[in-house]
Design brief:
single chain; 1 helix; 117 residues; 0% strand; mainly alpha
Amino acid sequence: MGTAASPLSLLLAAINESGVPTRTRVPLNASRAINPAGGDTNSGFTTDQRGISKVISGIVDIGSVEFDPGPNDIAALIRFLYKKITKLNRNIRKEKRKIRKWKRSIRSLKDRLAAIQ
């Protein structure tokens, strides 16, 4: 996909992580191979090489396997989101500490200014 000068990644899993005996690269969650714009709604095959329906969400995916958001993909997405949320919460706590520190500094400067006047 893309051009020779500017190729686009299809976001595919490593070979043979799909549980089939043949060499296969399954599309990952955000892959451009999943339901491509203008893609076919019908396939000459009823199932992919794993035995999963070749048309799951209305449009045939590019390649020999159809993306199936099974429990492993959902679990991986949940783990990914949990890590991101945990990191965001940690950053929010750090920023709140910085704000409290700045507020203390401002209060201290106001007190010094009041003492001078």
